[in-house]
Amino acid sequence: MGSMPQKITTFLMFEGRAEEALDFYMSLFEDAEVVDITRYGADGPGEKGTVERATFALAGQRFMCIDSYVKHEFGFTPAVSLFVECDTEDELDRRYGALAEGGTELMPLGSYGFSAKFGWVNDRFGVSWQLNLRE
């Protein structure tokens, strides 16, 4: 019996907004899918209905997310970001616009020398995204 190949999956920890983020990210990619999702029940330990654990895929890349029922002093940081190569300018503009809504623009859409069009934004949940127009 062969062993499964090792995989490294980006893991996002939210505090009560995981499903909202998941639904939002699903809307940004045509080939997105929720692989599985488990919610907390009435017996906890998290708030009933919040995400105990979810696995989802965006553009063929798998992610995991949870709603932490433990409050913590840290959040997401732009030191780790999701880098998205967009095939068309329309795709880049649409995704950037949606991600910037309620978020923080770190590098507004523009030409920065290393790319014809690029933008960097923290979305409304604090997750950092770099969007690049594929050459």
Describe this structure in words.
- This protein is α/β, with parallel strands linked by helices.
- The chain folds into 2 domains: 10-67, Signal recognition particle alu RNA binding heterodimer, srp9/1 (2-Layer Sandwich), CATH 3.30.720; 81-133, Signal recognition particle alu RNA binding heterodimer, srp9/1.
- The chain is 17% helix and 38% strand.
- It contains 2 helices and 8 strands, in the order E-H-E-E-E-E-H-E-E-E.
- The protein has helices at 18-28, 89-100, and strands spanning 10-14, 33-39, 51-58, 61-67, 81-86, 104-110, 118-122, 128-133.
- The protein has a 4-stranded mixed β-sheet with strand order 1-4-3-2, with helices on one face. The protein has a 4-stranded mixed β-sheet with strand order 5-8-7-6, covered by helices on one side.
- A hairpin with a 7-residue loop joins strand 6 (104-110) and strand 7 (118-122).
- The radius of gyration is 16 Å and the shape is globular.
- It starts with 9 loop residues before the first strand and ends with a strand.
- This is VOC family protein.
- It comes from Streptomyces corynorhini.
- Residues 6-131 form the PhnB-like domain.
Secondary structure: number of strands? 8
CATH structural fold name of the largest domain: Signal recognition particle alu RNA binding heterodimer, srp9/1
Shape: globular
Distance N terminus to C terminus? 43 Å
| Count of DSSP-assigned helices | 2
